[in-house]
Design a protein that fits this description.
The chain is built from 17 helices and 17 strands. By secondary structure, the protein is α/β, with parallel strands linked by helices. The N and C termini lie far apart (about 55 Å). The relative contact order is 0.10.
């Protein structure tokens, strides 16, 4: 059987590892086609075929393919590949979609409306993590982790305890935009705040969010503790890699993710240290002070991956799916794992997110803010970014501290509902700023801008990316 996989992006290495597992452990001949190489993306993953330079070979393989496996929301007719997949289906090719992200994000980046994504008239798969709850018509499938690959086996963990953390995006937990909703709020700033406090006590921390994938793997496998993500309630591929490497792995798994993982693997016990952001520092301290427990947990994590989540085992899900797809496509088109209709499902999910966000907002109390401003008494403090979140914060919690001097925002001239002083970015050079705190969703651009203006204007303010 010949199967060809297509994706616009790397999808965190998921398609290429699935293709490698299919070729290594089954009689399926598989290839992976990515649209193009993104020279600006530093999070480099392994490639197979790149459409923009291997187009002729891709079209030849496509002609011989029995199944076309599309990752994310590639439009069946109008897409970046210029391939009419719907026409190929009518000619006898079997097509199946696999979703790795929430529909909000896919709709934004692939320019397809959410109902159209959910109701694509093709067989659907979804990874057994947070996106699962959004796709009731999709069969649930695992990731494939190459547990015997050198980078995925335990490395030598020497010296004092070290903690690794490699999120995909530098997003705060407190803010979400319209398309990503709660699931891309990885809590980078909040987690780094905890890790920075450990650094101050001499704990070695390995972190970054723009490193090549191979470098992240190499650093993770020699660390003692790895933090995946402790905000949203789901683990990510990041977790599975660390568990395979025999690293004690921390993540926050909500009840739904716990249940689908147990059902998928058949294991009643999961190897994660399941904790959220507000217990993270306490959990880390306890683990750091118990080296024998760390060692045992790491060994057990590796054993669990070998028994329940190895690629040779998990790839069987896909060979069974391909067989069923070839023999009886109707099995996939009648899937409905959730009895609620889509509208009710989305309403529930969005209400869950609002409740979570409200909880986070409630944690940023006047006492916490007061401690920050008192700690920096005598310093002029500005917040960069005045959006919905900061508007709520200033109204519900208040920023009435003598050393809070106002907000800096690109829309300052258009904003008339701010009760605090509001300045444009162009005014920074004229402000007596000692500390500037970025508050926007994706801080990378803001941090670079502030660093640039500091250097060019020879300014002496400090950039503080989190205030707790």
């Amino acid at each position: 059987m010949n199967v060809i996989h297509f994706s616009i992006t790397d999808v965190a290495g998921s398609p290429i590892e699935l293709v490698k597992a299919l070729n290594a452990y089954t009689d399926v001949k598989a290839r992976f086609v990515k649209l193009k190489t993104d020279s600006l993306n530093k999070r480099v993953f392994e490639e197979d075929l790149v459409f923009e330079k291997d187009k002729e070979q891709v079209l030849e393989l496509l002609g011989r393919a029995d199944i076309i496996h599309l990752h994310q929301a590639i439009h069946p007719v109008e897409n970046n590949f210029g391939i009419n997949f719907d026409k190929l289906r009518r000619q006898g090719k079997k097509i199946i979609y696999q979703f790795h992200s929430v529909p909000h994000l896919l709709s934004k980046f692939f320019n397809i409306k959410i109902p159209e994504i959910l109701n694509l008239p093709y067989p659907q798969l979804v990874i057994a993590q947070y996106p699962e709850r959004y796709y009731p018509r999709a069969m649930v499938v695992p990731q494939t982790i190459p547990v015997n690959n050198t980078l995925y086996i335990p490395g030598e963990k020497t010296g004092d305890v070290s903690v690794s953390y490699f999120p995909s995006r530098p997003c705060t937990a407190w803010i979400s935009d319209e398309y990503s909703k709660s699931w891309d709020t990885k809590g980078y700033c909040e987690t780094m705040h905890v890790l920075n406090s450990l650094k101050e006590r001499g704990i070695k921390v390995l972190s970054g969010y723009t490193l090549p994938h191979s470098q992240c793997l190499a650093l993770k496998r020699v660390s003692h503790i790895h933090i995946d993500e402790v905000i949203t309630g789901s683990f990510h591929r990041n977790s599975l890699e660390a568990l395979s490497q025999g690293v004690t792995t921390i993540a926050f798994l909500d009840e739904r993710v716990v249940n689908i993982t147990k059902k998928l693997t058949g294991s009643n016990d999961l190897p994660w240290i399941n904790t959220g952001i507000f217990n993270l520092e306490k959990t880390l301290r306890e683990l750091i002070n118990e080296p024998e427990k760390l060692k045992t947990t790491g060994i057990n994590s590796r054993a669990w991956m070998e028994k329940y989540y190895g690629d040779e085992l998990m790839v069987r899900h896909f060979t069974r799916i391909y067989r069923d797809l070839s023999e009886n496509e109707a099995l996939f088109l009648n899937v409905n794992r959730i009895n609620e209709n889509h509208k009710k499902l989305f309403l529930k999910l969005e209400n869950d997110w609002k409740a979570r966000r409200k909880k986070y907002l409630s944690e940023l109390t006047p006492e916490i803010l007061g401690n920050f401003f008192n700690k920096n008494r005598g310093k002029n403090i500005y917040f960069y970014g005045y959006g919905e979140y900061m508007r709520k914060l200033s109204e519900e919690v208040g920023l009435n501290y003598p050393n809070f001097k106002g907000f800096i925002d690109k829309n300052a001239e258009k904003t008339n509902d701010c009760k605090y002083p509001l300045f444009s970015p162009g005014q920074i050079r004229d402000l007596p700023a000692d500390i500037i705190v970025p508050t926007v969703l994706v801080k990378e651009g803001v941090m670079l801008f502030l660093e640039k203006i500091k250097k060019e204007e020879n300014l002496d303010f400090e950039i503080v990316d989190y205030i707790l």
